[in-house]
């Protein structure tokens, strides 16, 4: 389609594999140079995005919430969610000032079992040093949101602004 299009089109799957580990490390940083946002959908179809903490194990994205937060009602109605990870510490990859970013769409399940949630906090503490930072108040219950990715688009990792796209997520070594 032309020189500009050829430079900007996505990488083929073989070329994209070279970036998989770097992309995983970027989303798995847990508050070290990235911000993460969760996108859910209201019953009326209006999307809602908000900043969240996101802990990544394997390719599963996990966020803790409180039982009364509206994002959980959105997920119960429509479990298809998205996460946007943006770079806060890196150099822009183009003249417009864009920094690395990763968009992940997937299916979310809600875990309300207290033992599973406690185990999550233990794993997160071992990996990041942050365990259960939420207040221990009997007025609310914690809910663990676990999202399995179905689609990932990463920008700023490959040359010439070419996006890297994955639709499969093998185990992380």
Describe it for me?
The chain is 24% helix and 34% strand. It is of the alpha+beta class. It has a single domain, classed as Electron Transport, Fmn-binding Protein, Chain A (Pnp Oxidase, Chain A, Roll). It is built from five helices and eight strands. Strands 1, 2, 3, 4, 5, 6, 7 and 8 form an eight-stranded antiparallel beta sheet that branches. The longest helix is centred in the C-terminal third of the chain and has 15 residues. The termini are far apart. A hairpin with an 8-residue loop joins β7 and β8.
List keywords for this structure.
single chain, 173 residues, alpha+beta, Pnp Oxidase, Chain A, eight-stranded antiparallel beta sheet, 5 helices, globular
Binned, the helix content reads 10-25%
Strand content: 25-35%
CATH level 1 name: Mainly Beta
Give the integer mean of the pLDDT values: 88
The tally of domains stands at: 1
Structural class: alpha+beta
Number of strands: 8
CATH topology: Pnp Oxidase, Chain A
Low-confidence stretches: 1-7
Q: What coarse outline follows from CA principal-axis ratios?
A: globular
User: Which second-level CATH architecture applies?
Assistant: Roll
Order of helices and strands: HHHEEEEHEEHEE
Q: By CATH's scheme, which homologous superfamily applies?
A: Electron Transport, Fmn-binding Protein, Chain A
Short synopsis of the structure:
By secondary structure, this protein is α+β, with helices and mostly antiparallel strands. The protein is 24% helix and 34% strand.
């Amino acid at each position: 389609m032309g020189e500009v299009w050829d430079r900007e089109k996505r990488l083929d799957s073989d070329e994209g594999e070279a970036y998989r580990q770097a992309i995983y490390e970027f989303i798995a940083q847990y508050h070290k140079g990235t911000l993460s946002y969760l996108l859910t959908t209201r019953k009326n179809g209006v999307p809602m995005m908000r900043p969240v903490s996101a802990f990544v194990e394997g390719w599963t994205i996990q966020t803790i919430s409180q039982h009364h937060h509206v994002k959980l009602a959105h997920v119960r109605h429509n479990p298809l969610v998205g996460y946007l990870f943006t770079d806060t510490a890196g150099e822009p990859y183009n003249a417009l000032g864009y920094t690395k970013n990763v968009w992940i769409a997937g299916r979310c399940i809600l875990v309300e079992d207290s033992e599973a949630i406690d185990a999550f906090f233990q794993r997160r503490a071992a990996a990041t040093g942050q365990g259960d930072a939420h207040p221990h108040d009997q007025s609310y219950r914690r809910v663990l949101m676990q999202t399995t990715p179905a689609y990932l688009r990463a920008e700023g990792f490959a040359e010439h602004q070419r996006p890297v796209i994955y639709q499969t997520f093998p185990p992380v070594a």
